[in-house]
Amino acid sequence: MNALSKCADSSPQCWAPSLSGTPPPAVSSVPDGSIRVAWPHNIFAGMRSLIIMGKEPSIGAKDGVTLVNKPLVTVLIPAYNRATYVAKAIESVQRQTLENFLCIVIDDGSTDETRLLIESYAADDSRIRCLALPENRGLGQALDAGLREVTTPFFTILDSDDWYAPRTLEVCLHAIEQAPLDVSLVCGNAVVWEEHPDGRLIEKERQPGRAFSNQYDFILYGPTLVPRFLRTKTVLSVGGFERDPITDGRMAEDRLLLLKLIHVSNFIYVDEDLYHIRVHKDNMTKPQTREKFVEVKRYIFTRMLKEWGDEYEAEFYIHPEGWLDIRSLIPKK
User: Fold this and answer.
1) CA dihedral 170, 240, 323, 85 (to 10 degrees)
2) Measured between alpha carbons, how far is 103 from 126 in angstroms, rounded to an integer?
3) For residues 137 and 108, is the Cβ–Cβ distance under 8 A?
4) At 329, which helix (H) or strand (E)?
5) Angle at the Cα of 164 from the Cα atoms of 101 and 231, rounded to 5 degrees
6) Whether pLDDT at 194 is above 50
7) For residue 286, what are the contacts with CB-CB under 8 A and spacing of at least 6?
8) Distance between CA atoms of 87 and 91, rounded to whole angstroms?
9) What DSSP character marks residue 43?
10) How high is the pLDDT of residue 56?
11) Which of 3, 100, 308, 322 is buried deepest, with most CB atoms within 10 A?
């Protein structure tokens, strides 16, 4: 019979199972403040739960390591036919300095080997889960399905063809925990990589993020904010990921969410390179889809300005690359 005994660090908050005939665990702290308990392989075989101070913790076990605090962060990775890229995205999450996380990889009805790859990672790492959708629904609906599974106070979105820097989760979690409760998003800088036909990745540019004074300052900002590290409660309060009437949520779903959030909360910026963007021939934002993106963004911008009080008229312009943005806001009389 398993008994509860104090951990080796003598902390009154940390308890671990005492199993007869097994060597004691090695106990140490990890960057997120959790206690890292290293047990021999398969020591928890047959155990249904571990009770700590009357609560059931999350067991994020990998290679004999158990994290006895509940995770605070969930990573959502939506993927559709990304067998070529999704492994790098998942492995960048596994290599985080903040080890106590959950990761939900949403297979959006892929027809290639994407789902099998995700399931293979999930089989080896209990922090990773495959959420398989029966058919392709598009990015917005895939993220909405993932959001319904989030139980942590914070979550973040990683595109399946991109990857995180090793300290991304640690840096963003620290930033939002130190911030006021009206902060709903943490962003940083990105490094953009161009994929050549032979598969080589060549660094193209650095895309800095920034802070915003208000919602109108943000709507004039063109680039996508990354990483998108979000407060779950605030996202749910604004309705989460919506379906636009043009593409049913397949395009610019993140832009719409952030415009809703900036109206009721604040964003903070960390000046560190936290996100890596891969530019390749199969990007969702490839030239063939930009006409539809222009239509969706025009709808979103016009809608949000009206919802914000209808005080401004947008002066739109098209980038040489084909993107729609707002050049200026003209006050209405």
Assistant:
1) 50
2) 9
3) yes
4) strand 324-331
5) 50
6) yes
7) none
8) 6
9) T
10) 32
11) 100
